[in-house]
Amino acid sequence: MALFALFAALFQLAVHVAGQQGDQSSFLSIDCGLGAALGGRRDPQTKILYVPDSPYVDGGENHEIAADRVNRAHDTSELTLRSFPSGERNCYTLPTESGAKYLVRMVFLYGNYDGEASSPSFDVHLGSNYWDTYQDGDYWWSEAVFVAWASWVPVCLVNTGGGTPFVNTVELRPLQASLYPQVTANLSISTYSRINMGANTTIRFPDDSYDRLWQTRNRSWTYLSTKETIELDYNFAVPIAVLKTAISPLNNNTVLTVLTWESYKASFQFVVLLHFVDFQNSQLRQFNIYINNKRLYFDNNESDDQVSPMYLSASWVRSSVLPRATDSKYNVTLAATNISVLPPMINAYEIFNLIPHDTPRTSSEDWTCPTVT
Q1: Which of 283, 343, 336 is nearest to 306 (CA)?
Q2: Rounded distance, CA 156 to CA 165, Å?
Q3: What predicted TM-score, i.e. pTM, was given to this entire model?
Q4: Cβ contacts of residue 263 below 8 Å, gap of 6+?
Q5: Mind listing the pLDDT tens digit for each residue in 130-168?
Q6: What is the DSSP letter of 238?
Q7: Does 85 sit behind a cis peptide bond, omega within 30 degrees of 0 on the bond before it?
Q8: Residues 130 and 210 in one domain
Q9: Coil, strand, or helix at residue 364?
Q10: What is the pLDDT of residues 167-182, one digit of tens each?
Q11: Among 119, 187, 279, 339, fewest CB within 10 Å belongs to which?
Q12: Is the pLDDT of residue 327 over 90?
């Protein structure tokens, strides 16, 4: 109880100090491995305050990444880490409000901290539920959206025999209740990918007030942008900075392959969320969506399901749970209709993996509409 009271007090202190720098008063940002004597460290880019991790975790060892790997760090909070050579399961205990919705993110930069030049593999759990797997590599982050079931929630590193688990950063961000409406007490989601199309830099706080990471992809596309005011959709609250850029196919082609991916775990259940805003309203832009070459229909209705992005107003299309691909490979394609004057376009997308809970807590909702048939 004394330890919980201590980290709760430190959390409130972090809230007070962080609140002086932009709208981050409700953020909890933990710099794993940062010495308690330092008190905290503010990231020079985001201005987010990161606090030491000792009040939130038991056990483990503090380390710094190797000097020749410092240039791989995206933020100052990634320069240190905590490793867990002992125990099968080690958890960070995060203060939450029961029934509230949160985004939690863990960031991993191996950085050859142990001089072994061999990064480990291990599992990450949200409470008792499997969340993700860190596999051989260097930099990686994993993010989940969940509804808190208690006044504290553990996020855990699980040793699966592939080496010593570690983590550099743990970040907790409260979300408004309307965001990601299909996330319930019984169903959480893990971010598999979140991409800002048409941009060349990653967007996060303060452009995204919830500090989601919108990464970039560079391909042979036509890049579109606008400086006009865009109306948001508050179900997903895609940042204006993301919505103001988009892509369409080269040479006015009528087909746009937006993304392809291969799941590293055959059991994953994916949901795709596509975000659209049109920057013109003088010509018809209309297209169909195909996922693994199967047409995406709305409400199981095979007519009038073409997409025409709204002019300067955010809209979105969400798939239901995708059928598992036998080869674990997936793709999303936009194809213009016969009457469309303009090629398809897209501003951003998100791919989520579902995290069903081991023990249901209340009646659940599912991702029911639209469906792939």
Answers
A1: 336
A2: 10
A3: 0.88
A4: 270, 325, 328, 329, 330
A5: 999 998 788 999 999 999 999 999 999 999 999 999 999
A6: -
A7: no
A8: no
A9: coil
A10: 999 999 999 999 999 8
A11: 339
A12: yes
